[in-house]
Automatic annotation (TrEMBL):
Keyword Nucleotide-binding recorded: no
Cofactor: [4Fe-4S] cluster
Residue stretches making up the ATPase BadF/BadG/BcrA/BcrD type domain: 5-251
Organism for this UniProt entry: Candidatus Caldatribacterium californiense
Keyword Cell inner membrane: no
Protein's recorded name: 2-hydroxyglutaryl-CoA dehydratase
A Pfam family assignment: BcrAD_BadFG
InterPro entries assigned: ATPase_BadF (IPR002731), ATPase_NBD (IPR043129), CoA_E_activase_dom (IPR008275), Dehydratase_Activator_Redct (IPR051805)
SUPFAM superfamilies the UniProt entry points to: Actin-like ATPase domain
Gene3D superfamilies according to UniProt: 3.30.420.40
One example GO MF annotation: iron-sulfur cluster binding
PANTHER family: BIFUNCTIONAL PROTEIN [INCLUDES 2-HYDROXYACYL-COA DEHYDRATASE (N-TER) AND ITS ACTIVATOR DOMAIN (C_TERM), BIFUNCTIONAL PROTEIN [INCLUDES 2-HYDROXYACYL-COA DEHYDRATASE (N-TER) AND ITS ACTIVATOR DOMAIN (C_TERM)-RELATED
Length: 261
């Protein structure tokens, strides 16, 4: 049986194809304004990329837009799916920090990806990928520039405001003072790392620590997270796919207890 795990996030929609033993294909697309349509497109693209014919798949949906996925035979929370997907790559993982476009989550794991507890921030853009995007616009840089500019930072500036709107004003104030762009990039990344660390401290961050979501590709944030938590950060091969893969694993377990998932 072929499983299609579709994770409809606020910023991106990922589809993972799993045949019960291995990942056969995947696709990641911007979510846009029609989650259901984008989910169909992601499934079609994943099948085409894998060279598989369009056929019946066991579709399992997760993510904030999971109820918009037409034809889903199973719907599972993103917390459960993220945990299972991370455990597939890192069986010994005990903490997951998932930093998405509109929210951030910290999940404590037990054996086999069992969720012990979790906490999330979905009330403010601070500490999310959206915050990094907004600040990149102010700094007139691309998201992929964060790592390079961060490596050249010298002055440890601080964004003290906890609100994304006020933090933007604070950043503009630094620009008016003539502060270097490299140091401003560091301040932005440090703000995200600090917010996420504070969120994690409500549960306790226990290593091994895995970071997922689009922000897991931001080397500046990862480096600062390591500094602030004192934990080496592990990142899956493709950090946008863990929830979709986890959805497949949950479905495989439910439909066939003997599966390797």
């Amino acid at each position: 049986m072929l499983f299609a795990g579709i994770d409809v996030g606020s910023q991106s929609t990922a589809c993972v194809l799993w045949d019960g033993k291995t990942i056969r294909g995947f696709a990641v697309l911007p979510s846009g304004v029609n989650p259901g349509e984008r989910a169909r497109e992601a499934l079609k693209q994943a099948l085409e990329t894998a060279g598989l014919p369009e056929r019946d798949c066991f579709i399992v949906a997760t993510g904030y837009g999971r109820y918009q996925v037409e034809g889903a035979q199973l719907v599972v929370s993103e917390i459960t799916c993220q945990a299972r997907g991370v455990a597939y790559f890192f069986p010994q993982a005990r903490t997951v920090i998932d930093i998405g476009g509109q929210d951030s989550k910290v999940i404590r794991l037990g054996e086999g990806g069992r969720v012990l507890d979790f906490v999330m921030n979905d009330k403010c853009a601070a500490g999310t990928g959206r915050f990094l995007e907004l600040m990149a616009q102010v700094l007139e840089i691309k998201l992929e520039d964060y790592g390079t500019l961060f490596a050249r930072a010298r002055e440890p500036l601080t964004l003290s405001q906890t609100c994304a709107v006020f933090a933007e004003s604070e950043l503009i104030g630094y620009i008016a003072q003539g502060k270097r762009k490299e140091d401003l990039v560091r301040a932005v990344a440090a703000s995200v790392a600090e917010r996420v660390k504070a969120l994690g401290e409500r549960l306790g961050i226990v290593p091994p620590l895995v970071v997922t979501g689009g922000v897991a590709k931001n080397q500046a944030v990862l480096k600062l997270l390591e500094e602030r938590t004192g934990c080496a950060v592990l990142v899956p091969p493709e950090p946008l796919l863990t929830a979709g893969l986890g959805a497949c694993l949950v479905a495989a377990k439910k439909t066939s207890p003997e599966t390797t998932a």
